Amino acid sequence: MSNDKLRSAVRSAGFSVAEFADEIGVDPKTAQRWMTLDRTPHRTTATRAAKLLGVPPSWLWPELDRAEQGAGDGEVIGFYAHRAQVPKMLWRDLLIGATQSIDLATYAALHLVEDHPETVTLLAHKASIGVQVRIAMGDPDAPAIHLRGEEEQMTDGLVGRVRMANAYYAPLINAPGVQYRLHHTTLYNSIYRYDDQMIVNHHVYGLHGYLAPALHLRKSDAGDLFATYAGSFDRLWKESYQPAGS
Predict the structure, then answer these.
(1) Both 171 and 106 in a single domain?
(2) Closest among 186, 211, 189, 209 to 199, alpha carbons compared
């Protein structure tokens, strides 16, 4: 079995295998075995490699997570100082890998469709094969969104982005199996849940969403961090409503 995620991340970062190995101080043959034989390096080396490639170590080598489960609740898979640092491949992989449920609570989520134009089609497909898809998108007329725009010094810019997002995602409003709603709440964090994994984009006063921190979480019976955000989504969902005319 090969490690295609590692191979792709190295290529995307612009390194050859030899250059990648040199940067992290290992023999090129060792790095090659990580890719072709899916070998898992020592955690220290894995952390150094992942930092170079800009991805969480456990995304490249899931075995690292499994090895840590006995030492803690293991809910935090990755932390990013800015949402823009979340690997584009991770967003795609989480969506493609979802088999039970997808929950999105956001104002716009334009980055999903801009980075991966097939996102809307994939969401509709997931719903058509039985995956529960719930999307709570911002209502562009909501006072909370106008206020957030002022706080981020975007004036009507955020409202425009929310309107654009609703236009992008509009095909999902009547797509079979998709539950598409609007909300007017003050959004303290955007939630992107795919089965038992979740990316939470926290919002910081005066900062655009892509500059604010993001957490990559995994559900664990030993902790309640994932459940905290899942409960937040459920409360927001109760406040959401159908778009006019749908």
Answers:
(1) yes
(2) 189
